[in-house]
Design brief:
The structure is a homodimer. In chain A, 70% of the residues lie in helices and 0% in strands. By secondary structure, chain A is an all-alpha fold. Chain A binds a DNA duplex through helix 3. Chains A, B: This is HTH-type transcriptional regulator QacR. Chains A, B: InterPro entries: Homeodomain-like_sf, HTH-type_TetR-like_transc_reg, HTH_TetR, Tet_transcr_reg_TetR-rel_C_sf, Tscrpt_reg_QacR_C.
Chain lengths: 206, 206
DNA sequence: ATCAAAATTGAACGAACGTCCTATTTTTAA
DNA sequence: TTAAAAATAGGACGTTCGTTCAATTTTGAT
């Protein structure tokens, strides 16, 4: 209790937990039913808090999605960097990424983001924020392929680095769409086979 | 004018054209904005026909989407079979497929179908119809890889045939999502590179 | 114990939604 | 030319939507 001079302005009445419950339920709903397909009433019912209270924590529906997408992506990046450090070769990192994506990448949420971004009625500011999101995983993929070329694991031209990362990301994203409908084991096999095809398809020495 | 005994019951007052205009515009809207994100008013505005008239041609919004998805897929199959006959090797067919998909595959529409199918409020009959749709392109992909194995172009186990087709389809579908946001040329390059990676990644002789 | 601040509710709003219904116009057959 | 049929428009319906707001309960500091 001594020395509480300044840091005491932290407000821990904890409606922080409420906020995170709302965020969690909203994320799942947006992922499963899309942005337009999810109503505030849905989020209210699922989270157990009133519609009005959702607006106490989030300015509006659009800002809620943006918040979710941003938070998801920044946490994704941190976690991947931690995982990535445990693997040495690009090939290993690629397999690790596939496994990581299956368990962490909330692609459907980013899809909801794309839904919002492609709506002409959406504010340019929101669009800009949402479009920047795809850059995070793309950069991570790019880094792996760049490493692979440097180590000689992969035989890619400089110009193919970006596009290969893009294609790998597209495939990862596509597979994630089946997260809610397929069982984990066969889906994991598909993730692994994806990596195998890419590794074989671009390996050095032609 | 002679011999009009029976086939005369064909009604060609041609509101058939109207129907197809509505269908066309609705398909583009569902593709771009999703099912929930597209209103009947949107379709009315875009097609130039009144809201009420849309219900003259289609029972309701859900049936309209099902009709579009079904029609799109059956026409897709016919056209592909016609194109496919012009190419001899599995590798050639794969490149042809990528090009064909970019110009014909209305993947976003099937995504809208998935959106509807995953909604618990959707009738089981509709769900069943929509879920069967993905089978059409999957079978076409499967046939190509099967051919490739038979000719020795590809080195795949029997058990990998289905999954490889599935992965190729996932990648094609993912790339189609960029049809509305990317320019045609760079997108075509991505389609081609996809095929290259697959062909190299699974070719015979290891 | 008291009181201001924070958290939370529930009702109310206008707008937009899917659908339906009644005209009105256009087409076809007689 | 006329009358039935088909095509089309436009508005009315009940509902649901996102959002706001005044009222209430809970919390933290004094």
């Amino acid at each position: 209790m001594i020395g509480d001079g300044y840091a005491m302005n932290k407000r821990h009445y904890d409606s922080e937990e409420t906020r995170s419950v709302i965020a969690e339920k909203a994320a799942r709903l947006f992922s499963q039913k899309g942005f337009a397909g999810t109503s505030i009433a849905d989020i209210s019912r699922e989270s157990g808090f009133s519609k009005g209270h959702i607006y106490y924590h989030f300015e509006n529906k659009e800002k809620l999605l943006v918040y979710l997408a941003l938070e998801t992506m920044s946490s994704w990046k941190e976690r991947w960097e931690s995982v990535s450090a445990g693997y040495g070769t690009a090939t290993q990192k690629l397999y690790a990424m596939a496994h990581f994506v299956q368990n962490n990448y909330k692609t459907p949420l980013l899809q909801a983001g794309q839904e919002v971004a492609s709506n002409p009625a959406t504010s340019p500011e929101t669009v800009a924020q949402l479009m920047g999101l795809a850059a995070t995983p793309m950069h991570a993929y790019y880094e792996i392929f760049k490493l692979g070329v440097e180590t000689g694991e992969f035989g890619l031209e400089e110009s193919e680095l970006q596009t290969t990362g893009f294609l790998f990301g597209t495939l990862m994203g596509g597979l994630c769409q089946h997260l809610f409908t397929m069982e984990a084991e066969p889906l994991e096999a598909l993730f692994r086979q994806s990596v195998k095809i890419f590794v074989e398809g671009i390996r050095g020495k032609g």
